[in-house]
Amino acid sequence: MAYPHTSGMDEAIAVHAFRDNYIWLVPGSKPGLVAIVDPGDADPVMAALHARGLTPACVLCTHHHGDHVDGVAALVRRYAIPVYGPAAESIPGVTHPVAEGDIAGSETGEPYRVLAVPGHTRGHVAYVGAGRVFCGDTLFIAGCGRLFEGTAFQMHASLMRLASLPPDTRVYCAHEYTLANLAFARAVEPDNAATLAFERRARRLRAEGQPTIPGTIADERSINPFLRTSEPAVRRAAASRGEGSLDTDAAVFAVLRRWKDDFKG
Catalytic site residue 175? Predict the structure, then answer.
């Protein structure tokens, strides 16, 4: 199933895959051409392209996990398009390895700047451009990815990089985890009115069968505890876990991430 998200010229199509993945079809300035972001499954992507009369111009991969890249081979066989992916990771089919500061996806007429955002995986990257950030499994709406290969220090630094993007940057992550993340955010900051208001909106969207994504960086600064590690309420909540000294924001982040790993809602 594909869901359109439109704001003026800024339109991205969310293609649902597996249980909760979104694969993004992203237009540029060249009519009818799209970049495909994190195609874990080729079949729903090809169905969405055909249904909408779109032509893929390139693939952008944020990291090596199968639910983000396992559709690459079939898409390349069908369309013979370039594939961008992190140079620090081994992803079959990548033709254009990218690292911090590189440019990707210009085939659509809308180039994206590559940000290195390690933490979830060792070489995870994000793609920033046209008022959007495609952040894979680093930043989620009201949450962040697990630490599979990187450290808490790395992930916190990556999240701070994303938090420093312009406030109106639209956040396109790869999973529909928003309601579960908001439950944790409320546990950390039960009196945060912005979180409660955002949750009402998210529940309404899900009841209508719509994604909660994209959000904005401004939203995340207001509701995401992993981006709010300097806030007194967040630091108090982390301290209540009794895990020792919290002398840095990265240490607060590490406590929150461990708490979230075991959180049952």
Answer: yes
